[in-house]
Amino acid sequence: MKQNNIYIFDLHNTLYDEVIEFGLAIQEAIDYLFEAAEAQGHSIEKDILYQQLSDAHARIGSDWDDDVWLEVKELAKLDNFEKLKNDAMKIRCKTSEALTKSKAFTDTIKTIKELKKAGNTIYVATEATLNAASDAIVWLDLDGIVDVAYAMPFKKPFRRRAQITKVIAYLANPCNASLSLQKPHPLILGEIILNEAKRNKLIPQKMTFDTVFEFIVDESLDILALKKKISENPVNEQQKTQAYETLRAIRTVMKVKASPYKEVIEDIKARCFYIGDSFFKDGFLALNANVPFIYASYGKKVSPKNGELHARGKDALFRLTGWDKFLIQLTQEAEQLPELTEKIVPYFTCENSFREFVVFKKEDRCNEKYS
Questions:
Q1: Residues 130 and 81 both lie in one domain
Q2: Band of the pLDDT at 323, cuts 50, 70, 90?
Q3: What is the pLDDT of residue 1?
Q4: Is the per-residue pLDDT at 338 higher than 90?
Q5: To the nearest 10°, the Cα dihedral for 241, 247, 250, 256?
Q6: Which percentage of the chain shows pLDDT scores above 90?
Q7: Going by C-beta distance under 8 Å and a sequence separation of 6 or more, which residues neighbour residue 136?
């Protein structure tokens, strides 16, 4: 019997334009609060508010946690703040939903639905938190199309919009349980492969990743320039710890252990394709898990009609999120090192839509048939 393929998709900028969606949605919420402050005669310092909001996002660890607004002291000046905050959150959610839908990569979404209908398995592996991933799956009309979405933990109850698609938090980082598991650590794909085997009852449910996988640090990979950058940068110890852990992840290679389940795991892995828009992070994730990397380069392209929206969204994204700015800078500098990037060789590059890969595979099979 012909076995299906397993497609594992990144979410942000692979299935929709997150830069426009996130940036403009949170900016609309802020603008609403600015207008309320002006109407009440209160003066709010924008730059201070932006910094307080970014700091709150970083402390809480999620860019989609409404509690961040409670930590923004500038907003405490507002009369009837609780109601205004709730109204602002409704505006943000409504705008986010509208932009996720309108800025979705529609042909890619349509192709995913066709692949699912043809019997393939669909996963999402994202660095969004569980609540944001659940929202996006529904807004993209992929509830039930995506079998399981893996995401960053969200540490309190939330409304799970996805009713059919399961949303599961990543395992803890195996080297430092206090840190979240982040790309490009190959355990992200290892967990999916392991759970695919369990879902199909091919291995015992009690099996853990360390019974079927081993992780080896490739000491030959030259990262001295990046280590020097971390040691010289005046960031706090938590940021340095996360940065060093990212370097470890870049060099961590996943191998399938010799065990009674090796053949099963190898078979599943052989049917996997990982699709993402970040050449470096997604590329190393796939490389270190030995899974073919489909580079969604269309996710980095900005059409002329979206140029202004994208610029505004990007400004808000970097100004307001809790993203570790040093870690972003470090990753960007790593992308400029040929000794690292030359190791990433995409199996296929999609310029405009994931459909291009599906067409390529069909033509490839056709050529094999008649060769």
A1: no
A2: low
A3: 34
A4: no
A5: -60
A6: 61
A7: 11, 15, 16, 100, 128
- Assign 367 a pLDDT band (cuts: 50, 70, 90): low
User: Exposed, middle or buried, 250 (CB in 10 Å: 0-12/13-18/19+)?
Assistant: buried
Structure tokens at 204: 């015992």
Does 229 share its domain with 218?
A: yes
Confidence tier at 151 by pLDDT (50, 70, 90): very high
Count the domains in the chain.
Answer: 2
DSSP assignments along 317-364, one per residue? HHHHS---HHHHHHHHHHTT-HHHHTT---SEEESS-THHHHHHHHHH
Q: Kindly state the average pLDDT of the residues 186-191.
A: 96
Query: Is residue 1, in this structure, part of any structural domain at all?
Result: no
Q: Is the peptide bond before 184 cis (omega within 30 degrees of 0)?
A: yes
Task: Give the span between the Cα atoms of 301 and 307, in whole angstroms.
Answer: 10
Cβ atoms of residues 352 and 295 within 8 Å: no
The C-alpha R_g of the chain, in whole angstroms, comes to 21
Judge whether residue 173 has pLDDT over 80: yes
Would you say residue 266 lies in a domain?
A: yes
Residue 7: what pLDDT? 98
Contact (CB, 8 A) for 340 and 221: yes
Share of the chain above pLDDT 70, in %: 92
In terms of residue numbers, what domain contains 33? 18-103+302-333
Cβ-based burial of 317 (10 A; exposed 0-12, middle 13-18, buried ≥19): buried
In a domain, 108, yes or no: no
For residues 212-221, give the mean pLDDT.
90
The enclosing domain of 198 has a CATH number of 3.40.50.1000
Q: CA dihedral in degrees (150, 156, 157, 158; nearest 10)?
A: -60
Q: Parallel, antiparallel, or unpaired: how do β-strands 213-217 and 252-256 relate?
A: antiparallel
Which run of H or of E encompasses 90? Answer: helix 81-102
> Closest Cα to residue 167, out of 181, 184, 153, 185?
153
